[in-house]
Design goal:
Blueprint: H1 2-24, E1 32-38, E2 45-48, H2 50-53, E3 60-76, H3 77-83, E4 89-95, E5 98-104, E6 127-139, E7 145-150, E8 160-166, H4 174-201, H5 224-231, H6 236-260, H7 295-315, H8 318-321, H9 327-338, E9 356-361, E10 369-375, E11 384-390, E12 398-405, H10 434-447, H11 463-483, E13 487-495, E14 501-504, E15 510-524, E16 531-532, H12 537-543, E17 547-548, E18 552-564, E19 574-587
Parallel strand pairs: 2-4
Antiparallel strand pairs: 1-8, 2-7, 3-6, 3-7, 3-8, 4-5, 9-10, 10-11, 11-12, 12-19, 13-15, 14-15, 15-18, 16-17, 18-19
Keywords: Membrane, Transferase, Transmembrane, Transmembrane helix
InterPro entries: DUF8094
Protein name: Glycosyl transferase
Length: about 600
């Protein structure tokens, strides 16, 4: 009976293993489907629409073949179309399942002598790729994103492109069939061995009553040669064990080989689909724009800004700095470069790049665009809060304002993937409109607690106001000891010329970046006196004269970030960060 069960197990194992292998080979459908894209014409760019990328379910794989360097980038469709307005390009679209190719003419072609804009390294791309001859990259883009393909932006774009999607074909029962068949095969082998063992033990008839042979004692004097002949034949039990080992080992090896070919898609997937854990919801207005940068995009931009500014600092080159700086950030750098040969001149701090703690992008689909970021310095100095702006689709993001954080304020900010709307400079819904914050704070610096705006600002979390007051008192004391008889020193502050940059918080407040100009003026009190700059090489270098009979005016630029609560809030305006540097010095006319 054991042989019958063994044969049955062998047959079932062969059927199951064969069926499992057939599912993974002859009966298995294609795992991917591809769409070739033929490009005609000599346009320098190919724009593959998001509808084409999502014409099939699953992730996409782009394959481009062309001699030389191949460039590809992806981003929001509207951003790519805006970037392409000065150039002609081929637009690949999808209509009712059909792939269509359309030639799009340049809307604002540049002048003939204008240098073509390179697509490489644009801050507008969410990511970009470069490879020689063949470019293959996996993607997973939503419908509102598109893909840009080019060579160098001048030569015709590659003409041989294809997209590949997974079909989702699986063989969920191949694994169980192969494993189940292997188990049956092993069981059949065991049954077969047991049957052979049983048959050998019961071999031959056993008759009762037959006379047994008379046993005789073994003659110990038998020669060694004869004993060798007798002991050379092993017992039958030893032969059986040896054969069993030779049978079992190959069976285990065969099973291991079968299991090695079973991947995850060869098994059924049981259980419910995992659900995301609940998180606080953010209601986004239907007319709100998209965030201008993603977290990864902002980190890449900050790294580029840090690298480019570091190179400009090394060369003390204002033109190089202007590639990544603008506004007050550039103005203070230009002054620092002018003072490069002055002993003990202040050295501008490097722009930190990582780690990025906070990214608050503006939710806006046009230009200019702005985002705020907080970056750890990794040193004993405080973290840095920055504002960066992109003037148009073809310009890089530039650092406009930079300050050291003074407090780790708890702000209710929108997630990076949602973004924040910009606040109108004249908005009446805040404690102060953004375009009045700088003037109000300048009045506080000048008049202290006597200022009419003092009650609107939180003095307990504002070390900058205290530092300014102490510095002015020390300088006035030093001036009075040496020049009080022949001159006067006065201080004033006023709002900077730059327009404030403001992004909303979720509690109807706003983060506002402004500038304040502090001015020190020293003039002689009689016509015979002159103001000398023997002990002030900074002002002497900036003015180009060692003394003046009319006096000097020195301007310091303060870059300030505030949290301005809503008008209905009981909170006060809080200083988030500050930085101060000498901006200019002039002879009093």
């Amino acid at each position: 009976m054991r042989f019958v069960w063994a044969v049955t197990a062998f047959v079932l194992a062969a059927l199951m293993i064969g069926a499992g292998i057939a599912q993974r080979t002859v009966f298995q459908g294609p795992k991917t489907e591809s769409q070739a894209i033929s490009v005609t014409g000599d346009a320098p760019y190919v724009l593959i629409d998001g509808a084409v990328l999502n014409s099939h379910d699953g992730s996409q794989t782009l394959r481009v073949q062309e001699d030389g360097t191949i460039f590809a980038a992806y981003g929001r469709t509207a951003d790519l179309e805006a970037w392409l307005t000065p150039s002609e390009y081929t637009h690949i679209t999808e209509d009712d399942g059909e792939i269509a190719s359309e030639a799009v003419a340049a809307k604002n072609p540049p002048a003939a002598d204008t240098e073509p804009i390179s697509p490489i390294g644009s801050d507008l791309w969410l990511d970009e790729f470069q490879q020689d001859d063949v470019l293959i990259t996996p993607l997973q883009l939503p419908a509102d994103m598109s893909l840009l393909v080019a060579t160098d932006g001048v030569a015709p774009a590659p003409s041989s492109l294809s997209l590949t999607w997974p079909t989702g074909a699986t063989t969920p029962w191949a694994g169980p069939l192969i494993v189940g068949g292997s188990i049956l095969l092993l069981g059949g082998i065991v049954l077969y061995i047991l049957g052979v063992r049983h048959a050998r033990r019961s071999r031959g008839p056993r008759r009762k009553g037959l006379p047994l042979p008379v046993t005789e004692p073994i003659d110990l004097s038998v020669e060694e040669a004869d004993k060798g002949v007798i002991s050379a034949t092993p017992g039958r039990r030893q032969l059986t064990r040896g054969r069993r080992r030779m049978v079992v080992v190959p069976a285990v090896a065969v099973s291991a080989l079968l299991f090695a070919g079973c991947s995850a898609d060869a098994w059924p997937q049981f259980g419910s689909t995992p659900t995301a854990s609940p998180s606080p919801s953010v209601v986004v207005p239907h007319d709100q724009g998209s965030p201008v940068v993603t977290q990864a995009q902002a980190e890449r931009i900050l790294a580029r800004v840090s690298e480019d500014v570091a190179a400009a600092d090394e060369a003390k080159d204002p033109a190089a700095a202007a590639l990544r700086l603008t506004g007050p950030a550039l103005a203070t750098r230009e002054t620092a470069y002018t003072l490069k040969d002055v002993a003990d001149a202040p050295v501008p701090a490097a722009v930190p790049a990582s780690p990025v703690r906070v990214v608050l992008p503006e939710a806006y689909d046009q230009w200019p665009r702005t985002f705020f970021a907080v970056v750890e310095t990794g040193t004993t100095t405080a973290d840095v809060i920055m504002s960066l702006t992109q003037a148009d689709p073809w310009s890089p993001y530039k650092l406009t304002n930079e300050s050291e954080l003074v407090a780790d304020a708890s702000l209710n900010l929108a997630p990076t993937y949602v973004g924040a709307v910009a606040i109108d400079p004249e908005s009446p819904f805040l404690t102060l409109p953004p375009n009045e914050v700088a003037a109000a704070y300048a009045d506080i610096i000048t008049n202290g607690d006597a200022s009419t705006y003092a009650d609107l600002f939180d003095a307990s979390s504002d070390p900058f106001r205290t530092l300014v007051a102490q510095n002015r008192a020390e300088r006035m004391d030093a001036f009075n000891q040496t020049a009080a008889q022949t001159g006067t020193l006065t201080f004033s502050a006023s709002a900077g010329a730059e327009e404030p940059k403001s992004l909303a918080t979720l509690d109807s407040g706003a983060i506002v970046a402004v500038t304040v100009n502090e001015t020190d003026t020293v003039v002689p009190t009689n016509t015979d006196a002159v103001i000398k700059l023997d002990n002030n090489p900074l002002v002497q270098t900036l003015t180009g004269v060692p003394q003046s009979s009319t006096g000097f005016t020195t301007t310091y630029l303060d870059q300030l970030f505030f949290f301005v609560p809503s008008q209905s809030s009981s909170k006060r305006i809080q200083l988030l960060g500050y930085s101060s540097a000498i901006l200019d010095a002039k002879v009093v006319p």
